[in-house]
Amino acid sequence: MKSPSPAIPFDRGGAARFMPWLVALMVFLAALSLAAVMTLQHALEFWDASLAGTLTVELPPVPAPAPAPPSNAKVKTSPNKNPVSNDGGLAAALALLRATPGISGAEPLGRDAVARLIAPFLGNALSPEDLDLPRLIDVRLSTGAPPDLAALQAKLAAVAPGAVIDDHRLWLDRLVLFARSVQITALVILALIGTVAVLTVMFVTRTGLLVHREAIELLHLMGARDGYIAHQFEREALRLGLAGGAAGLLLSGLALLALGHAAGASAFLGDAVTLVPALHLKGWNWLALAGLPLAAGLVAGLTARLTVLATLLRLP
Amino acid sequence: MSSFAAMVRFENVGMRYGRGPEVLRDISLSLEPGSFHFLTGPSGAGKTTLLRLIYLAERPSRGLISLFGKDLSGLARRELTPLRRRIGIVFQDFRLIPHLSAFDNVALPLRVAGTPESKLRGNVRELLEWVGLADKLEANPPTLSGGEQQRIAIARAVIASPSLLIADEPTGNVDDAMALRLLHLFEQMNKLGTTLVIATHNAVLAARSGRPVLHLENGELMRGPVSARQTPRPPSAKADQTKGHAGQNKEPAVS
Lengths: 316, 255
What we know:
heterodimer; B: alpha/beta; globular
């Protein structure tokens, strides 16, 4: 047995026709904003996990004494042409670091690793030998009892003049600040989209109340409770919200996959050092995105219900 | 007749829309349960407004209205809903819902009241058969004639067995034979205890029924003709100011 048709002819309401499209657009934008928030959260966790508990010690190149030029020759020698091996300082610094309590390991970065680090910026034409590059030591800290960095800096300077400890905090703090700003902006956009969605549904519902006022008054005079009439609008708004939301989710899913592909293509440094956060969404992230059409439907239904109930109070 | 027992009671009721002039002035009347009245008067006299006040579509600008023995001014808005379910209405313009079938239109008051589908089907079919529309159950109103639409409107008004039936020109679009048949239906309902108020231009129908008449002129209720059996007074004649005559022959107490 088929269920009875709704008493209010919603298919004849003008503004309601556009509601699924508007909801689809809003869910699309909301999904992108939410994906940005979640992706940045993963990036922050990745940066924090990668850099927390590590230090980098930089040993600046020390110019070696240039060989005495022939007395008659006027050959201009560039310091770059005399790369310096800082192995003396490196060995001393390594010995100091490994002997320091609170440090679980210290490994120098080989020249090949340094070359890979600078390749994206300077290309492969230059080798580290052509440049006065500092030697880098990757230091891993013991958990729970970090060393006194100021004291360590002083000791390092004694055995390896010019050595600098970089605990990554400065640029990590800036990166986190930037990422948090983007996240807050995305959340504000999300809230604005929600507000616009509510206002849109209110507008569509009020238009519907106006278009169907005769049918509504008829139901009211027959003894329909406000909740009965509101339920009809609520059910219709829920249906339109879910339909529009599903379309918006589909569009946003395609857009996110395309963006993920683009982000993957830009990860030229490999996952370990890429600055562009890869668009990796976990399972629950996709669930959260899939919940957007449901949220859109529920918001639309609830808004329609409350709008109708408020308007019906004007009837005697 | 005690005022407590009155089905409909108006005391000095006035009605104006917005800041416009009063369309009803100082209406006082009392209708007994089980009574049957015609409401007559020229166009613009306020018949529809009076009916709208009775079927709770409007609140009066002044005065008191009691329905089913309850003073409406003392009732909260939600308390009016059960009263509305005891009133059947036949609108002058039918007010059928065009996208619903004849069956669904007639079933609507029962569905609104929460009657299960299994219980309403038989009643709706039976009533539509009675008004001669057994073969039009699934037809939508725009495909039906004016008379057929009117019969659906009447069937919808009586399907929930209302205690009070209000009809605004219910015979306006039907031929004399059908008008008499509808009048017979109203008589049957009245015999079963339903109180009826029927607004009509059809003086012949009112006369044929022999029922008391409420007559409106320029927003005021006139005493004459109170019954088609009596000689009408001139329209300018005001109603008798003395109360207490209403119980005789179930004529309305008009003041």
